[in-house]
Structure formats: C-alpha cells, structure tokens
Structure to design on (693 residues):
C-alpha cells in the first residue's frame, strides 16, 4: 500500500495539462457549458480527439495491436480525470475509449475490430448507447426491442429512450431481444448499428437539463446484418455487464465537480464571501466529498491495474461520485442565491448538468442495492 | 500507487490483528468501562511488540495509521493514536506513556487524561508536552466510550516545542481522528450488519428490506471514503488540506453512522449487553474533538481556497 503517483504518470499529467492549455480555445468555458453531448462539444470532439490520438493519448491503455500504447489503467484514469475536470473536450467520445472499444476488443469479430477500433482510436467517430426503453429503465433486462432473424439480417423494431449523443452519432451500441420467447437476462443480443440505416428516427425529448440532451429513438423494420452482432447470439447480457463495469466509473464526474468547486470558491472570493464561516464550511464540506469520491475511484482504478475481478467497490465509488457532484451543484445555487436562476449563469449551467448524476448510468438506488448485497452481504429476500 | 497491502504490510496487519484479538475487543471494553479503567496491559503489549514505534522504526506513518484504525476497530481502551501516530508526527517519540491529547481551547473532559503520564497540549500555534502525575487529572464520568479526565487546574511542568508545532500537532491529530473514526465505524457497522442478518420481523430478516439496506449501504460507502482519505493522508505525512479533508469527512460520517446504526439496531442497541454502544458512543467523542466538523471544514476551505483565517 502506497499512494505516490508513478513518476511517469505524474509527468504525463503535466504534459497533458500543458497540451490542454494550448489546445482548448479561449471561449472553452462557454463552449463546454452545456456538457459533452452539446452540438458545440460534439463538433469540437472530432478535432480535439484527432489531436489527442496523434499524441497517443486517446487510447493509451489499449493494446498496441489495436492502436493503443499498452499503458496502465492509471494512465487512462488520470487522462479521464483531467479531461472531465475541464469539461470533457472528448465530448461523447469518452464512451468510445472507456467501454465501447474495450467491449469490441473483448467480444468483436476480426471484421468488427478492423472496422471500428481504428476509427475509435483515431478519434473521428461518435457513438451512442441504445440501452433504456420506455418500459426498461433501472430494470434494463425488461427490454423488449425485438430483433428477429430474416436470412442474414436482423429486423429490429422497438423504441429506445433517454438516449444522449444520438443526434451526432455514427453508430449505436444497441441492446435488443433476439429471442422473442425469452425473458430477463437470456435472449439479449448486442448490435453495432450504423445510425444511417433506414428505419431509424430520432426525436428530441425537450428537458430542463439542456437542449438536445435526451432523445427517443424509434426503430421500425431496421435491417441490421447479422455480421453487426457483437458477441454470441442471445448472450448479450454478458457483453453489457462487461461494458458497464467500465462505464460506472468511466466518466470522472467527480473531477468536474472538484474543478467546479474551485471555480465557485474563486467567484465567492471576488464577491467577498470567502471570509464568511458559513460559506467556508459549505466549501469545505463539498471539497471533502469530492476528495472521498476521488480516492474511492482511485481504489477501483487500482483494482483494475492489478487485474482483479470487478467488485462492489465500483458501486461504492459510483455513489460517492454522485453525492459529490450533487453537493457541489447544490452549493452553486446556494452561493449565488437568486442570481443563479438566470439561464446560462455559471451556477445554472453547473446545476443543470449535475441534475442527472443520480439517475444516469444506473440509478443510485440500484447501486445501493448492489452495495448492500455484495459489499455488506445483506440478504436479497 | 497501490491500494493493496504489500507482503510486509500484510504481515504487520496480521500480527496487529492477532495481538488485538488476544487483548482487546468489545467484551474487554465493557469490562473496563465498568470502573472507567484503562487497558495498560494492552498498551504495554503493543509497545513490547514494537507496534507503537511503527511510524519511526522501519515502517512509516501509514503502517502506524493502520494500527490506529485496527485498534479502534477492536474497541481498544488505550491511547494508541497519540503514542503511535501523533507524538511521532511531532518527532517526539519517547514521551512517558500513556499520552493524552488536549486542546487548550476546549473546556470539556479529555480522553485518557486520568490515566495519562503525558498531556500533549495544543495551545494555539504551540504544542507542549506536560508531565502528569497520578491524580493530576481527576476522572470525569462520561458515557461517551472512553475513560475521561479533567484538564488539571494547577500549572504543570511543560516542555514547549517551537512556534508552529501547534499546527503540526493539529494536522496529525486530525489524521488520527479520521483513522479512529474509520475503525470505530467499522466496529459499529459490523455489529449492526450481523444483527440485521439475524433479526427477523414480519417473517423475514430485517436486513432484507430495501429501506434498511440502503441506509446501511450509505454508511458503508461513507466509511470507505473516510478510510482511504485517512490512509492516504497518513502516508503523505498529514498535509494540511488532506488532514482537514479526512477529519471533515470523518466527523460527518461519525454522526451518520451513529444515527443509522442505532436506529437500525432498535432498542437492543441502547443496552450495555449489546456491543454497539462500545463503538457508537465513542463516535460522539471523536466527532467533537478539535472543534468538530465545522472547524475541520473551515480548515479545508482555508488550505484549499485560501479562505480567510479560519479558527482551527
């Protein structure tokens, strides 16, 4: 047990900071205010990720044969932490490198690997995830989008909902029920679907979180070649479980919360609030929660670096991260008072971006169930 | 960076656990509490085994911190944190034991003072080591988990450290508090978890109800945060911000775990026959020391954001 950052990793972080200083445009704070799925960020991500890729920094932790640098899980985690802390200039592409690419490496055919991995590691492709459905949210295995075999194709019909990034996406990582007789975990398959396939219709769901944040995706007689299926037929749940282990701590939202908190403290200083003991206590409380989330996430990264099997520590870190993000968001409003209510104010942007923290990528209640049962060993029934 | 213990740390931890298994535990704590006793045999055993010198001899403050956490988890009635972590942090390793920690700005009873031979006193920006004779610190009756004593009213012979030593004492004390809270919460959580698996109402184990599970899960998550923050802070030598962060989070979590473990344990949790109180009542003492959660949080703001002079 020791807590020193490896010298190579520390040097890498310094290099990356210097690069970001140069690579992010002057109006970056405004451009990134609406989160990684916004038009501005999705567009910028293609330029930015290509530059990261040139330096080998888009997929440093991938194996060399797939365009990576064979770096440790730490390298990738530090990269994600720093990029999230500045508002995630990779845009939606953080998903590609965190879990979509690794899932394709693990389960993909040679043809799929050859098609997708070079594009992901070059930084010029956007993906979305087709998971949730109107009747399958936290209970994802209730999904019923049907994919029926017809010769060499699947014919897909159904509806996906709450989909982010879909309006820019080139591909969808789509969960379907391939065995119509099946229920629950059995009979699910994963399809890698080009978004320009006929029969896909995308509609925005207007929300208070932000513009173009959520969408509904209607799939009507969408023909997807069987060669687009990732992993064994009807056994897609194993693929998803593998992918989700990466996803739950993949987005270092606590790092963004910590950076937001620093910015809040700066603003409090310029408003003459920093001498107020109440303000100090609120800032200190939120900072402590951000730090707890960081160290618990690092614990998971360390387990990954040791090649240990996924554990409930992932869920522990996930909940801590959510709590930290929520604490900072609440504080943003409280520090600014009613000034925060103006659309587009700093506090407003931070607060609405953080609103989804407890729901996105698995509701907090589901995480708590897993902690209770797997970490504490409490009985299910 | 490596969160897994290495071979040497595993060996140290196993030896610590074996010693605590023999000498400490809730039953021993309850027995001593009946007459506000102090576990001198335990402290002597820890000393003879070399564990109180872990911070300086061979290992380091992280290993000393693991001892502090483990002793708290075992409900040890001995001033382990002061001897193993705080005094060595001040490079003051050979003070007469037991050592009690006191803050001159606090008026209340002091843990272990009635049995201590040294009072390590924080007085503003200075730290002083005062010799205590038997009877200097009168015992104070308290239900809050430790044998307590009143700060002596007569002036004591004290050996002051240089100006600024008060801040050093404060940093290490904060880290020690966080480690003690992590271990003490572990004790409270383990007892409560076992009870919830065992206790049946409405025809099922009450630990199977989701409303109950979520509350205990929140406690577990919070405790893990404190543990790793505190270990990391100890490893890095108790830097200002990390020390304040770990104490601030620990003081918050101490109250959460106190409230939830008692609520979920029902009436049996209040009794002296059930072990919960050995740990839970201590959490109140720990979360109040050094000005409590508010003072720790202001200290975080001061060191992180340069907020105006926060009273420590």
């Amino acid at each position: 047990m020791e807590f020193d950052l490896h010298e190579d990793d520390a040097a890498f972080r310094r290099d990356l900071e210097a690069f970001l200083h140069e690579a992010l445009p002057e109006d970056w704070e405004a451009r990134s205010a609406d989160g990684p799925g916004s038009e501005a960020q999705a567009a910028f991500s293609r330029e930015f990720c290509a530059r990261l890729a040139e330096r080998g920094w888009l997929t440093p932790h991938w194996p060399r044969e797939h365009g990576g640098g064979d770096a440790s899980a730490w390298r990738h985690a530090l990269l994600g932490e720093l990029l999230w802390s500045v508002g995630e200039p990779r845009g939606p592409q953080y998903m590609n490198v965190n879990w979509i690419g690794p899932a394709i490496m693990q389960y993909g055919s040679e043809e799929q690997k050859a098609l997708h991995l070079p594009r992901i590691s070059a930084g010029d492709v956007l993906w979305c995830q087709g998971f949730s459905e109107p009747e399958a949210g936290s209970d994802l295995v209730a999904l019923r989008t049907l994919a029926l075999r017809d010769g060499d194709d699947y014919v897909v019909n159904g509806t996906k909902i709450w989909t982010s990034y879909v309006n820019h996406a080139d591909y969808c990582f789509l969960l379907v029920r391939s065995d119509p007789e099946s229920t629950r975990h059995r009979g699910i398959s994963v399809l890698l679907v080009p978004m320009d396939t006929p029969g896909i219709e995308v509609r925005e769901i207007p929300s208070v979180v932000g513009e173009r944040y959520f969408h509904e995706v209607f799939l009507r007689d969408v023909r997807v070649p069987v060669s687009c299926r990732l992993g064994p037929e009807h056994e897609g749940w194993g693929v998803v479980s593998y992918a989700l282990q990466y996803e739950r701590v993949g987005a270092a939202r606590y790092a963004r919360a910590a950076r937001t908190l620093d910015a809040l403290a700066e603003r409090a200083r310029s408003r003459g609030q920093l001498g107020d003991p109440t303000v100090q206590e609120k800032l200190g409380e939120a900072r402590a929660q951000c730090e707890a989330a960081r160290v618990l996430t690092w614990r998971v990264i360390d387990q990954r670096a040791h090649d240990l099997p996924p554990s409930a520590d992932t869920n522990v870190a996930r909940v801590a991260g959510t709590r930290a993000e929520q604490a900072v968001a609440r504080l943003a409003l409280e520090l600014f008072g009613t000034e925060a209510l103006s659309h587009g104010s700093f506090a407003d942007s931070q607060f609405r971006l953080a609103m989804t923290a407890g729901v996105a990528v698995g509701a907090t209640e589901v995480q708590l169930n897993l902690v209770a049962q797997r970490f504490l060993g409490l009985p299910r029934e | 960076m490596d969160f897994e213990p290495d071979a040497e740390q595993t060996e140290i931890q196993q030896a610590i656990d074996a010693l605590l298994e023999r000498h400490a535990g809730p039953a021993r704590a309850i027995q001593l509490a009946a007459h506000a006793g102090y576990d001198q045999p335990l402290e002597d055993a820890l000393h003879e085994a070399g564990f109180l010198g872990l911070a300086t001899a061979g290992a380091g403050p992280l290993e000393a911190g693991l001892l502090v956490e483990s002793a708290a988890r075992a409900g040890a009635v001995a001033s382990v944190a002061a001897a193993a972590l705080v005094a060595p942090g001040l490079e003051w390793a050979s003070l007469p034991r037991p050592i009690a920690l006191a803050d001159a700005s606090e008026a209340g009873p002091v843990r272990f003072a009635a049995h201590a031979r040294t009072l390590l006193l924080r007085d503003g920006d200075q730290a002083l080591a005062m010799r205590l004779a038997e009877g200097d610190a009168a015992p104070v009756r308290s239900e809050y988990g430790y044998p307590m004593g009143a700060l002596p009213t007569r002036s004591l012979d004290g050996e002051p450290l240089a100006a600024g030593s008060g801040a050093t004492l404060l940093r290490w004390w904060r880290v020690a508090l966080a480690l003690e809270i992590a271990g003490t919460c572990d004790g409270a959580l383990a007892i409560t978890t076992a009870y919830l698996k065992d206790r049946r109402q409405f025809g099922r184990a009450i630990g199977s109800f989701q409303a109950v599970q979520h509350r205990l899960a929140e406690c577990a998550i919070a405790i893990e945060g404190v543990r790793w923050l505190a270990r990391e802070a100890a490893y890095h030598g108790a830097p200002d911000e990390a020390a304040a962060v770990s104490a601030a989070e620990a003081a918050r979590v101490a109250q959460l775990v106190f409230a939830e473990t008692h609520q979920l344990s029902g009436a049996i949790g209040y009794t002296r026959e059930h072990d919960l109180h050995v740990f839970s009542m201590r959490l109140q003492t720990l979360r109040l020391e050094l000005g409590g959660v508010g003072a720790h949080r202001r200290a975080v703001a001061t060191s992180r954001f340069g907020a105006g002079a926060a009273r420590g």
